[in-house]
Amino acid sequence: MQRLHTKDLTGHLLEGPDGSRWEHLSIPMEAPAHKVYIFPISKKEHARDEGELLNPAREGPAELEEHKARLGTYGYASQFQQMPLPAGGGVFKLHWFKLWPKLDSEGREHHAELPQFDQIVQSWDTAIKDKETNSYTVCTTWASATLVTSCWMFGASTSSSRDDTRHERSRRTMASACNSD
């Protein structure tokens, strides 16, 4: 079954209370890594190497590039890779974000200079109750800078990010600062 979203029929069945009863066989158009696929009923094995196309005679590299351009990162990852969320993200790219301050291999901090921002916006989610089991107060700070090639994430927590082609074309990046104290 073609994947369209994390909460599509496949996702619903796999994540549901009876999810363990289903055998999930996911064969992407482009093999992300070397893998041996074992078909549940016939028990036949099929090995694929990283980057190998599922059926290059039917859809080769040129056709796949057309699909990628037409569908975008998110659509291609869902419909051709059977992965409703692209590995590098759907709206923001993971590689856009860098931790600040930077830590070396021994855990020592090294501060990097931040770019000049055009605009800075803060959003607060304040904790109303003060019990230990309640939510934290969180502040997110977003900053945009023209012609910056990376983003900065402040604080101890990290988050996944996603890609947006329009965002790449405009060459505007966002920086996120999170504080969960």
Question: What structural keywords apply?
Answer:
3 helices; single chain; extended; disordered C terminus; five-stranded mixed β-sheet; 9 strands; alpha/beta; 181 residues; two-stranded antiparallel ribbon
Summary, kept brief:
The protein is of the alpha/beta class. Helix content is 18%, strand content 24%.
Fraction of residues in β-strands: 15-25%
Radius of gyration: 21 Å
Low-confidence stretches: 153-181
Largest beta-sheet details: 5 strands, mixed
Q: Structural class of the secondary elements?
A: alpha/beta
What's the arrangement of strands in the largest beta sheet? 3-8-9-7-6
According to DSSP, the number of beta strands is: 9
What does the model show?
By secondary structure, the protein is α/β, with parallel strands linked by helices. The protein folds into two domains: 9-79, no CATH class; 94-179, no CATH class. It is 18% helix and 24% strand. The chain is built from three helices and nine strands, in the order αββαββββββαβ. The protein has helices at residues 9-15, 61-79, 165-170; strands at residues 35-38, 45-48, 97-100, 102-103, 109-110, 119-125, 138-146, 151-154, 172-179. Strands 3-8-9-7-6 form a five-stranded mixed β-sheet. The chain has a two-stranded antiparallel sheet with strand order 1-2. It has a two-stranded antiparallel ribbon with strand order 4-5. Strand 4 and strand 5 form a beta hairpin. The longest helix is centred in the middle third of the chain and has 19 residues, at 61-79. The model is unreliable at 153-181 (pLDDT under 50).
